[in-house]
Amino acid sequence: MTTDSQQVCGVLLAAGTSTRFGAKNKLLEPIDGVPLVRRSAATLVEAGLTPLIAVVGHESVQVRDALDGLDFEIIENESYPEGQATSVRAAAQVLTERDTVDAAVFALGDMPYVSVATIRSLVSAYEAGEGTALAAAYEGVRGNPVLFDRQHFQALGEVDGDTGGKAVFKGADQHSLVETDDPGVRIDIDTTCDLDTERPDQS
User: Fold this and answer.
1) Most CB within 10 Å of its CB: which of 25, 171, 182, 195?
2) Per residue in 53-71, is it b (16+ CB within 10 Å) or e — as a string?
């Protein structure tokens, strides 16, 4: 998404191994006939974010195929077995080199119910100066996606473990929750049972 002075990139983290899901790759499981990861990706597209980056790893060929036709630059993360932080680092290192990108929304490939309105709310809050690290929330509880100003890209490029950018978010001087009416910001698909969870209404 580009405004008169700010460009907000969309980052999709889609490299995980789906260990809790069983033998199948959860990102490739269909929801209403559409691969889960493609639904997550389409939200970033429809929100108007640009450029778009997807970090892939586990079964990367199949995940690439699921994203075919969407305008994503694909980054291969060969270190994906070491945890989500490796994907955050891979994306952040690319973003650091993009001088025109002012901020990035980091979204998870296994969260297909986040609404387009939520992404736009994060960007609007950023443009209004509400913080340099902003996380979507529902009923006062933090969820995903999370928006980071470029001042945090270097720190994101140095994270470790399997917690992604949580430490960077909490350590930011200007971090804040952006309240939404979107339960999708707290629904991720970890097990086959999660696919049967009641789906939130999306707008």
Assistant:
1) 182
2) bbbbbbbbeebeebbeeee
Residue 4: the pLDDT is 52
Per-domain residue ranges of the chain: 8-192
- Distance CA(203)–CA(116), nearest Å, equals 7
Query: Cβ(50)–Cβ(7) under 8 Å?
Result: yes
What confidence score (pLDDT) does residue 20 get? 66
Q: How far apart are alpha carbons 13 and 91 in whole angstroms?
A: 9
| 8-192: CATH superfamily | Spore Coat Polysaccharide Biosynthesis Protein SpsA; Chain A (3.90.550.10)
The residues near 23 (Cβ < 8 Å, ≥ 6 apart) are none
| H or E segment to which residue 22 belongs | none
**pLDDT tens per residue, range 91-124:** 999 999 999 999 999 999 999 999 999 999 999 9
Q: What distances in angstroms separate CA 72 from CA 52, 156, 199, one per listed residue?
A: 5, 20, 26
